Structure formats: C-alpha cells, structure tokens
Automatic annotation (TrEMBL):
Residues 1-16 have a biased composition (Polar residues). Residues 1-20 are annotated as: Disordered. GO terms for biological process: methylation. Pathway: Cofactor biosynthesis; ubiquinone biosynthesis. Its EC number is 2.1.1.222, 2.1.1.64. Keywords: Methyltransferase, S-adenosyl-L-methionine, Transferase, Ubiquinone biosynthesis. The gene is ubiG. GO terms for molecular function: 2-polyprenyl-6-hydroxyphenol methylase activity; 3-demethylubiquinol 3-O-methyltransferase activity; lyase activity; polyprenyldihydroxybenzoate methyltransferase activity. This is Ubiquinone biosynthesis O-methyltransferase.
Amino acid sequence: MSDATTVTPSNTSGGQTIRPEEAAHFGKLAKDWWDPKGSSAMLHKLNPVRLGFLREAIDIHWAGDVRNTRPLAGKSALDVGCGAGLLCEPLARMGAAVTGVDAAPENVAAAAIHAEGVGLDIRYIAGEIGQQDLGAFDLVTSMEVVEHVADKRAFLAQLAARLAPGGLMVLSTPNRTPQSRLLMIGAAEGVGLIPKGTHHWDDFVTPEELADLLESVGLVMGEPRGIAFSPMKGLHLSADLSLNYIVTARAA
C-alpha cells in the first residue's frame, strides 16, 4: 500500500524553500490532477516528452539495454515536487523504489490514493525536502519546480544532498525569455490551458543561470534540450530552448 505521510522535520539539513502560497495554489489542483482534461491537462501532454528524455538519460548514464522495460530495477528514485504522482508512477513501473515529496499535503494524499488504485507501492511525503531524513537516491528528479521555490540555490543544494554517489539528476523548468512570457503566461494561462497564477515570469531560470547554480552546489549540468511546441508536433524535444528545457546533472 502507498504511504502518504508528513514526516517529522529533521534538523539535519536544509532550510525553508517552500513558498506557502505556491503550495496552496497547487494543493487546490489536487482533486483533478489525474484528469487529462482537467486543470493539469498540460502536464499530461508534457509528461511523455519528459519521460522520453528521462529514459534516454537513464540508459546512457547506466549503460542500460534500451529494450529493458525496467531499467531502474534495483535502484531508488526521488521525485521532488511530485504533485499527484504523474512522474512517480512511471518511475515505479521502470522498476525503481520511488519516493515522492511535495509541498502540498493534498497532492501527496491524491498521489497515494491513485498509486494504491493502480497497484503501485510508492512512498509519498508532504513537506520541505531539506527537513526530511530521506537518505540518498540513485535518481533524483524535479520537474517544473525550481521556478516555484523561494531560494533556488538552497533548493538545489538540498537535491544534491539526496543524490547518491554515481547518481543522476534530471530537472526541467521554463526559460526566462520573451517567448515564454508571451506563450506560457500571456497565452496559455490567459485561455486556461494552464491555471492562472501558476507561473511568475521573473522566477524563470535561464540555462546559463541553472548551470551556475548547479555548479555552486557541486554538480555539472549536461547539454539542455528544449521542450518546444508546434501545431504539427505538439510538445516535443527540440534544440529550441526558448520556452522550456530539460537537463541532466551529475556530481562534479
């Protein structure tokens, strides 16, 4: 059975990075997170693109067999900012022992119910990542999260502290460009494709800024891939980084 709990804070690492207003915003979306036509519809469209990048990164990092349906068997994975588990569940199906952490208790409750319903054993925890005594993980992911935290460097340091030796980190985030302001906030939030108030353009991080932040916490960023949109392809991996991008990171 999936276990959704709020772990008692530990004083061993990290400070506050959660913005309460951000946690409250996403917590309100918990009830229909798994509805592909609901308020998280864009995440359902984005998730296969992220998973395509992630699977390739896993195979390259651990020199795996691309035909293996469980490339994470025997490995542990941590997804921070997990929402209701859209990424945690595929990671579990890939064989990982998965822990999901989210700032909103409503999200981890919804995640645990859904995981139990589909027969997946995933540990879910609500709270501040830096205040949980979780140990280290082979794979650490955090998708569309760094733009929402109060202290980006502190947050990335907390992620780095959870990465086991030889481990892999994968992050995705919107780029701070005129295109992202126009399309992600002006257009997508304007017409309801993304819930209004989800994004604050000034908090977006450029690839150069993210590389510097990761370097400051002892990690080296891989070559970023863009997540672009076109009417013909929909959301897809691209050399165009102007809207959104996804990267790997490893210990320096």
